[in-house]
Amino acid sequence: HRYRGEGKIAIEHFERAIQATPDQPNLLQWHAIALASLGRYADAAYELERATTLKPDSADLFRLLGLARYDADRTADAIKAWKKAQELSPDSDTERLLYKAERELQVEDRSSKKETRHFTLRYQGDRTSPNFQSDLLASLETQYQDISRQLGYEPSANIIVILYTQKEFMDITEAPSWAGALNDGKLRIPIGGLSSMNLELERVLKHELTHSFVASLGSGHCPTWLNEGLAQMMEARSSSGMARELGQLFHDRKEIPFQVLEGSFTRFSNLQAEVAYAESLAAVEYLRDRYGLSEITRMLESIGTGESSEQALRNSTGLDYSGLERRLAEYLAR
Are strands 187-190 and 182-183 parallel, antiparallel or unpaired? Predict the structure, then answer.
């Protein structure tokens, strides 16, 4: 886990520099960025609070402070920071973050909170029984251990899980109609009228939880095909049932190119999304079968250091995207 070692070394350098010159906002800012990259969001927010005191006219510092507070599960404080940033220098991206956070806070104000070793669960007590909450957290902890064992890695920060009604989920996430849940740094789960765990909810939880591991390993830069392929594989899906149709797409050169699959799938139609997820799962299954899961973990770590996704693939397998597409066509045909 070379990148995390480098991150810790960078933090030590920044801390020594800050001791020597404590009133440098730029040093505090970069220290906070290094802390956030390791999931230490509360510490990052503290450093940015000091920086904004020293430089109260910096919209950029207040934007970063909002992000750190939001990731540290301090939504109301994040809103204050983003509002200050907007006063100093209005920005459309910050406006969208602010709008989302304000709607989220309305749900938070009606919610209760439970914490376990690795999770913070937000729920509305009149909709989820104590038994359901306990079963859900127990399932998450079991899945956490399984993913951690397979990838040989544990995220450093507690993972926030928020339970929503279907309407709240759609209003806050603006997810496409085919999305069953969402992980944007927090696991957002629409539970509808569920009152107990079932197999489908367990699969959804494991899928979304995998995204938290991937985000931490790849420092938020993992391409969507690798991210979604791993998440599907961890929930025990298989591409074998789709191999014939998918293999024909590759044979006819009508597959979605992996360069396109690096970006978000939320812009796809239902049918395009189905193909994108199937390709992603097949690709990760091929990489696991041919090179092993540990090599996929190394790819993620390489991406986390700033390597491009295709270069990380090439480093681990010798294949570029066109080579992967050719190998996949052969794999699916078999």
Answer: antiparallel
- Positive or negative, the CA dihedral 172, 173, 179, 181 is negative
What's the angle, vertex CA 221, arms to CA 226 and CA 47, rounded to 5?
145
Element (H, E) at 288: helix 270-291
In whole angstroms, give the CA distance from residue 262 to residue 257: 9
**Is there a contact between 186 and 160 (Cβ–Cβ < 8 Å)?**
yes
Q: What is the pLDDT of residues 106-152, one digit of tens each?
A: 888 888 888 899 999 988 867 788 898 899 999 999 999 999 999 99
Name the residue type at position 256.
I
User: Could you give the CA distance from residue 298 to residue 294 in angstroms, rounded to a whole number?
Assistant: 6
- For residue 22, the cross-strand partners are none
Cβ-based neighbour number of residue 225 at 10 Å: 27
pLDDT in tens, 39-98: 789 999 999 999 999 999 999 999 999 999 999 889 999 999 999 999 999 999 999 999
Scan for tokens 């759609």, then name that residue: 170
Measured in residues, the chain has a length of 334
